[in-house]
Amino acid sequence: MINLMAFWMDIYFMDSNSPTMDYMIMFHDFSMSILFTILIFLVLMMMVGLKMSILDLNLMENQFIELIWTVLPMFLLVFIAFPSLRLLYLMEEMFYPDLSVKVMGYQWYWSYDYPDFELEFDSYLEDKLEFDSGFRLLEVNDLLYVPVNCMVRFLVSSVDVIHSWTIPVFGVKTDAIPGRLNQLNLYSYRPGLYFGQCSEICGINHSFMPICLGVMEMEDFLDEVDYY
């Protein structure tokens, strides 16, 4: 079963649908393995020390011990930093996108623009009284569509206050800042319908800025664009 949405009592990431999310999950597991190793080592040291009473209450100075607890954490941080920086640059790198989409944040809705197709529309939260089934606070009146297996560049900004355009299953989260243009790339493995929300407190209706992204085959995407 592919977990592409968050469910009650979930304690781990949703199943990835992009290379970015794959790398983020791997980096998370890599970092947590180091942290758990350190934790287990410290717990064992405490247990052995308490059980065997290996305590020296008169120890005032030990250059060797101080060197170890200074140098070892430094090497561990560097060991974690290198893959972190590499992942950061991979997330920001953009290689000849197949499609560009402009995203503008408003209080409290999103506006999307396809420069390649001269198509622009606003996406509002769907009134819960207007549909019988669906996901509460996630349904929108107009969906954003992108083709599957294509590199899509998103240019994100805002008109009024700071927003944040976020879809967890793709591992994308970019601040929409007035007067500034932020860029992110998105590559999807599988077609489907994916949800996100504004992740920056932007006012009284912050909770009512859903993001609904439909990923489809290229032929269906072109038909959808022509329909508009």
From TrEMBL:
InterPro entries: CcO_II, CcO_II-like_C, Copper_CuA, Cupredoxin, Cyt_c_oxidase_su2, Cyt_c_oxidase_su2_TM_dom, Cyt_c_oxidase_su2_TM_sf. It is found in: Mitochondrion inner membrane. Its cofactor is Cu cation. Pfam families: COX2 (PF00116), COX2_TM (PF02790). It comes from the Eukaryota. It catalyses: 4 Fe(II)-[cytochrome c] + O2 + 8 H(+)(in) = 4 Fe(III)-[cytochrome c] + 2 H2O + 4 H(+)(out). The chain crosses the membrane at residues 34-55, 67-89. GO terms for cellular component: mitochondrial inner membrane. Residues 5-95 form the Cytochrome oxidase subunit II transmembrane region profile domain. The keyword DNA-binding does not apply. Signal peptide: none annotated. The keyword Magnesium applies. Component of the cytochrome c oxidase, the last enzyme in the mitochondrial electron transport chain which drives oxidative phosphorylation. The respiratory chain contains 3 multisubunit complexes succinate dehydrogenase (complex II, CII), ubiquinol-cytochrome c oxidoreductase (cytochrome b-c1 complex, complex III, CIII) and cytochrome c oxidase (complex IV, CIV), that cooperate to transfer electrons derived from NADH and succinate to molecular oxygen, creating an electrochemical gradient over the inner membrane that drives transmembrane transport and the ATP synthase. Belongs to the cytochrome c oxidase subunit 2 family. This is Cytochrome c oxidase subunit 2.
